Amino acid sequence: ISLGMGEETTGGAVTGLGVGVRATLGLPDIAMAAGGTYAAMMPEIYSFGDASDAGAVTELSFIRVVNGGDATGMGTVDDDAFLFSLQGLTAGDGHLFDSTVNLTNPQIDHTLKIKIGSSTYYIPLMDNANGS
């Protein structure tokens, strides 16, 4: 699935939101019943048995983000693009965007492994937003 904006010298444009894939989980205008697991998108790598071993593959990831195409255009995208954009969030204690990090005593408890180019990096995570 993709959103084509033309090829080479032919071009198109979007004046509003243009996305290749939109996965919407619509919540009704009522208090939802208890229970259940909801997600707008669920990338899954499923292993069918104990012999499932992807160790020999070149790369394995849940999401692969690629900046491709013309080198000059790629450079422009590299300068302007965000890895992701979060909208509709408010910073606050206990929110998805939690703003209560204790900077005087931060404690990194876990990391998420990511790959940029051919290098492995780790995003730091804390068990508690207050760093304790």
Describe what you observe in this structure.
The radius of gyration is 20 Å and the shape is extended. The termini are far apart. The chain is built from 1 helix and 2 strands. Strand 1 (110-116) and strand 2 (119-125) form a beta hairpin. By secondary structure, the chain is largely without helices or strands. The longest helix is centred in the middle third of the chain and has 10 residues, at 71-80.
- Output the number of helix runs: 1
Structural class: little secondary structure
Distance between the termini: 44 Å
Task: Kindly state the number of beta strands.
Answer: 2
Average pLDDT:
87
- Give the helix level as a range of percent: under 10%
Q: How much is the radius of gyration in Å? A: 20 Å
Shape call:
extended
Name the beta content range. 5-15%
Largest sheet: 2 strands, antiparallel
Strand order of the largest sheet: 1-2
Low-pLDDT parts are none
SSE string, helices as H and strands as E: HEE
Per-chain topology:
Layout: H1 71-80, E1 110-116, E2 119-125
Antiparallel strand pairs: 1-2
Short description:
The protein is mostly loops and 132 residues long.
Key descriptive features of the protein:
single chain, 132 residues, little secondary structure, two-stranded antiparallel ribbon, extended
